[in-house]
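User: These chains co-purify. Model them together.
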Amino acid sequence: MYVFTKRAEDKLLNALDDTPHEKMALFMASSLHNDQHKELRTDENLRYLRRVAREYDVRVFMLEGGDVAFLFTDRFSHIWPKFEEAFARALPGYNPDEITLNTLMRVYELPQDLALAREVITSKLRIPLAPDMGPLTARAKKRIEKHAQEEWDNDIFTAIKANRLTRSKPLIAVADDDEFILSLVRSVLRPTYEVITTQDARTVLRMYNLHAPDILLLDIMMPHFDGMKVLQEIFCVDRDAIILMLSAHSTEKRILEAQQYGACGFLTKPFKPESLLLHIDSMLAQRRRSA
Amino acid sequence: MPIDYDLLAAKMSALQGPYRDWLARDVLHYLVDAQNRYHQPDFDHERLFFHIHKLKGTGATYGFDAISLQAAPLHDALSDGTADLQTIHKMLGGLITACEHAIHS
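Assistant: Joint model of the two components:
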């Protein structure tokens, strides 16, 4: 069980990476705490946050005094140590040995009721609910605004995903830094399929969230970009994602790694256009079966 | 869905023009220059690797198999850094020839 406090926030912002669940946690903690984002503290937003939290298997408790508690389930066990470390640095009184998530999950079923949740946290778990509120740094504000936009995009994504089956043509998204690969894919796949492309690795996740493509072709090696990491992030927001990895380095280890992360195939560059069409055909059949 | 090979061939033919132009405009002279200057201490190895990587990944896809075939061993040699200057020089020569053939095909 981790309690986000205003005091800890800036330090946490520096300590955490930008994986989707962390972004979500930061956004929720920040927006609900921040005096300058009072307009975000509405019942509607809280319902929205709880809905997103359910999707991520994170339980959210809004506590009196502006504190927000997050309960991360087993699905995110790999990030616990990072959170523990960050909290140990940010909150001097925090003792990760005293309370572990596993213990908490086993022993307590924390109530969604604000007063009860507060009582459990303060009396049974003896975690201080830090009260002092300092101003957010400019950097934190900037990040919050960015994350807020992305989270709302995720909400839109859920709606778009529901419309996948009603599209007149399947939508194929392609992320590759090589313009020649992109123009070939566009030319070969159009007009049978709708095709959207990006050369900028930083926009892959955003493109995916905005359009919910039926298939994503993802180059594993783009500048400043870890294709495997993006693969994992996409599966965090869309468990039904169908992703074909593209790479000029198709070692057995790399292929296995991609498959373990959920990629449905691997197309080695250079590839023949016929081979691309066959892969697309097979993946769309998979999409139809899963629907 | 069955593949329409005639349509595919027509599309590929249209795509090959710009690819040839790129080879002639941006690649060929660079490779010749790289072959001459590879041994120099200020040579940008990263830039060479970028070009070779791109040629390996796109050559055969655009119908110029020889380019990918020549670029692949050079790509490996540059990756692991084991090849000597003479070998790199020879490999670059093979790739230059493949590019010239593609441009004039």
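Chain A has two domains: 2-154, 166-290.
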